[in-house]
Structure to design on (706 residues):
């Protein structure tokens, strides 16, 4: 029986304290699965309209994905090219035009090594000289450095198992120098002894008061630096130090162990008097450029998506008008306002998600196809192209979140209107 | 509303022609076994209804008092505009009265929230409109199952129940058609099946045969009458058709927003029928 008995004579029944109503517990309403089912069936029955609306969303998301995936890919490709030979944790230091004030001697190297976060410091001295092999002789740049420095420079040298020893009297010469010395095949120079003259000045040695030339020094070629366009030779810094009193270098590389301290270390080096540069600055510049490009793409995308949103709103509004009687009968049969609301929002979310899914994979797929086509074309024209299409995980998440948001926002207004329709008015609607 | 959901029991095996088809699974309320036939289930107390049209206030109902007893087949009759449908909608919980109360099983339905009334309509009342309204994307059987979905029941359970109910009204062969593929008479039978789905205690019908040909109208009325008699389902029906008075156990005639006559005497009803 009823929770409470009210007699018609009871004129105060409205003000009486009612027992807690139980419909909340009982009237669970339509399950979400059924709301989804009805929304899906409604989209299916209006197939052409649904396809066109979903197509509009797919086109918008597809264009955004296409453009941004190329944008992200290009950025990644350029950054990867730039950082290929230049690790991002290395700060290049030089004395710039201040050679009289600061130089990379053992004292300053030790000082730099003591900066917190610095992992390693390597230096390179350069001076002029001459290489003599039999009748051939040529002017060259002589570098004095370490094997680690060569590794950091990513010098592609070969010979003797690819080693350049800091403690031996050996040298790596450029393939260009090998050619000038008469070796058609640069590798034939490996193992050959050569004679070199080296120019020494106060810039490279504190022990020298005036410029002089140390002549007729011998060394053995242990490797060839390939793909070069100038004549130069690498000798171990230690060899130059021991034999000619070289103790200062013009440039060096500071390897940072803790990237969080990168900026601070760079700042300290500059305060010491060094001129610094790092690939990070270039990367920041590249990223800044692509950020600007992306803003333009996003603005473009927003314009496209606005058109898609209008399409969705139009579809949902038409659907609302066409289904007014359906809403009426659903409400007459006991459907809660919130369930009607959910029905329309869910329909909008379905349109948005399906459109977003198709658009994302369509746009990404098309970009990949274009990329592949250009690579094949490049091969035919003897040009090597790499993949420049890339979608970061964050972008995928952002697109997924965006289409979900789009679905909810677009669906709210028609859903609200639908939920507010009075059952009787809806049933009378013509 | 404790009574709305209550223990159910299997249909009695005796005088119901579809029992063999229904089997044991379809259940109907058992409360009729425990109540006297004279119990008042719907009490319409001093109902007034006014509509504001522009600057004018139009009074449609001018103090209606009717008590409907369990198992009655009440026909509301009267000329167009006398307020029959408005009264029906007020009882159904769709249109609020300007004054007065509706008590259903002693519960004043207009003192509750909209969601409460939605639940009440879903669980307690079977509704047959003049023109059957459908969710056009759903099949006949799915449309019949809608009250089940609305009540939060699962698809399978609601469909099984809808299938049995369609069988009861003789429309099972049309279960997988689209509702609009059916004739008007068939659609109204399906609408009746939908009204029966959740085993209502009370059926409200708003000129259910208004759009039907004579033969279809008779078939539908026979069906409603059968359920009224077999299960003591109370029926409140609006009709313009005097030929249908023979189905009623009570005729409430309305004129100009008031009850003009309230006939319960079988002989008087038969006289009316013969006059028609």
């Amino acid at each position: 029986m009823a929770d409470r008995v009210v007699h018609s004579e009871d004129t105060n029944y409205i003000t009486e304290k009612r027992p807690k109503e139980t419909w909340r517990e009982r009237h669970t309403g339509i399950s979400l699965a059924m709301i989804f089912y009805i929304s899906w069936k409604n989209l299916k029955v209006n197939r052409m309209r649904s396809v066109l609306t979903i197509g509009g969303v797919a086109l918008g998301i597809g264009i955004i994905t296409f453009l941004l995936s190329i944008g992200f890919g290009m950025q990644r490709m350029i950054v990867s090219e730039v950082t290929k030979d230049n690790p991002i944790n290395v700060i290049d230091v030089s004395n710039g035009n201040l050679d009289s004030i600061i130089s990379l001697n053992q004292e300053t190297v030790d000082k730099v090594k003591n900066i917190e976060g610095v992992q390693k410091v390597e230096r390179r001295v350069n001076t002029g000289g001459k290489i003599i092999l039999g009748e051939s002789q040529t002017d060259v740049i002589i570098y004095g450095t370490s094997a680690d420095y060569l590794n950091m420079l990513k010098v592609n040298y070969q010979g003797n198992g690819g080693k350049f020893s800091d403690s031996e009297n050996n040298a790596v010469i450029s393939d260009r120098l090998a050619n000038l010395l008469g070796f058609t095949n640069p590798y034939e120079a490996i193992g050959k002894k050569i004679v070199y003259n080296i120019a020494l000045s106060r810039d490279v040695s504190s022990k020298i008061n005036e410029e002089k030339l140390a002549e007729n020094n011998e060394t053995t070629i242990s490797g060839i630096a390939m793909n070069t366009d100038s004549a130069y030779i690498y000798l171990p810094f230690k060899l130059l130090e021991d034999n000619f009193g070289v103790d200062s270098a013009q440039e060096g590389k500071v390897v940072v162990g803790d990237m969080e301290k990168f900026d601070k270390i760079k700042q300290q080096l500059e305060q010491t008097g060094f001129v610094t540069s790092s690939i990070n600055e270039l990367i920041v510049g590249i990223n800044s450029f692509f950020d600007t490009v992306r803003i333009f793409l996003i603005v473009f995308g927003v314009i496209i998506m606005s058109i898609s949103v209008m399409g969705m709103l139009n579809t949902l509004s038409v659907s609302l008008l066409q289904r007014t009687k359906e809403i009426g009968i659903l409400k007459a049969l006991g459907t809660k306002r919130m369930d009607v609301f959910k029905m329309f929002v869910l329909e909008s979310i379905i349109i948005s998600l399906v459109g977003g899914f198709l658009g994302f994979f369509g746009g990404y797929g098309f970009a990949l196809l274009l990329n592949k086509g250009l690579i094949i074309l490049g091969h035919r024209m003897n040009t090597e192209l790499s993949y420049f299409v890339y979608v970061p995980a964050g972008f995928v998440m952002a697109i997924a979140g965006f289409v979900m948001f789009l679905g909810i926002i677009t669906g709210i207004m028609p859903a609200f209107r639908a939920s507010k329709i009075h059952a009787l008015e809806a049933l009378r609607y013509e | 509303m404790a009574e709305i959901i209550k223990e159910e029991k299997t249909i009695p095996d005796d005088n119901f022609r579809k029992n063999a088809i229904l089997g044991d699974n379809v259940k109907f309320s058992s409360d009729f076994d425990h109540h006297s036939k004279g119990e008042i289930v719907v009490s319409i107390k001093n109902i007034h209804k006014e509509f504001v049209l522009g600057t004018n206030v139009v009074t449609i109902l001018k103090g209606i008092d009717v008590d409907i007893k369990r198992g009655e087949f009440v026909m509301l009759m009267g000329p167009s505009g006398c307020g029959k449908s408005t009264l029906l909608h007020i009882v159904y919980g769709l249109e609020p009265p300007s004054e007065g109360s509706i008590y259903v099983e002693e519960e004043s339905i207009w003192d509750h929230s909209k969601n409460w009334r939605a639940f009440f309509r879903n669980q307690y009342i079977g509704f047959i409109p003049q023109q059957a309204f459908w969710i056009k994307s759903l099949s006949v059987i799915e449309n019949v199952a809608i009250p089940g979905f609305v009540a939060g029941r699962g698809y399978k359970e609601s469909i099984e129940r809808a299938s049995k109910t369609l069988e009861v009204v003789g429309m099972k062969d049309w279960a997988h058609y689209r509702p609009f593929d059916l004739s008007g008479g068939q659609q109204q039978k399906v609408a009746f099946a939908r009204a029966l789905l959740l085993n209502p205690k009370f059926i409200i019908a708003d000129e259910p045969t208004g759009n039907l040909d004579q033969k279809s109208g008779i078939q539908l009325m026979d069906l409603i009458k059968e359920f009224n008699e077999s299960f003591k389902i109370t029926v409140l029906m609006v009709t313009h058709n005097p030929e249908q008075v023979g189905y009623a156990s009570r005729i409430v005639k309305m004129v100009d927003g008031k009850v003009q006559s309230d006939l319960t005497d079988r002989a008087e009803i038969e006289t009316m029928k013969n006059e028609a």
Observations:
- The beta strands of chain A are 90-94, 118-133, 136-145, 157-158, 170-174, 193-200, 212-225, 232-236, 251-256, 275-278.
- Residues 1-25 of chain A have pLDDT under 50 and may be disordered.
- The radius of gyration of chain A is 37 Å.
